[in-house]
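Hi V.,

You were right to ask for the full record rather than a summary. Here it is.
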Amino acid sequence: VCASSFGATVTLRSGSVQVYFDAKASSVTRFAAGELGKMLSQSFGSEVPVTNKFLDSHYAIVVGDNHLSREAGINVDKLPRDAGVIKITERMAFIAGCDDEKKSEKEVEGAFRAGIWGNMYERASEFAVYEFLERFVGVRFYFPGRLGTIVPAHTELQLPVTEIVNNPDYTYRDYAAWEMGAWFDDVHRKNGRQIMHHRHRLL
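Predicted structure:
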């Protein structure tokens, strides 16, 4: 689902964009914000701050369900599981969905080692982040690891003023690999013959 203001765009440049998360955000939401900041930094070739404070002269991309996203008219409680909203305005952007409030930072960071049962928590903001990266930055997720994740270089990004509701095509998605190729990063090869990896909009 997509609605847009015809012709209106926002230009993002290195040094003038930040990723914002609420100070009370869960570990799941913070991870999503970190993923966005990491890949935008790689794309721009310079650090994109990920912080719970607004920086002067920076366009903020707000990640997660918080008072700002709700004031912008985003109600994640009405969304299906794993669905997220991307809303881009001339003042700031919002990427939000329902996220598990109980998972610890350690559990979130180690989720790809946890198998199916350890990956059944809600992280719709993270899925929406990946949708944003694919749709507007051109990132491609082919398989886990550095070689399987393609992040194009940009000096600037042109974003349309728009609102998108991103729904998963299937309720259950997973990724499994039984043979670790030489192109997989060491961290993935060391975790056994089978690896469940949830970072690529699959679960």
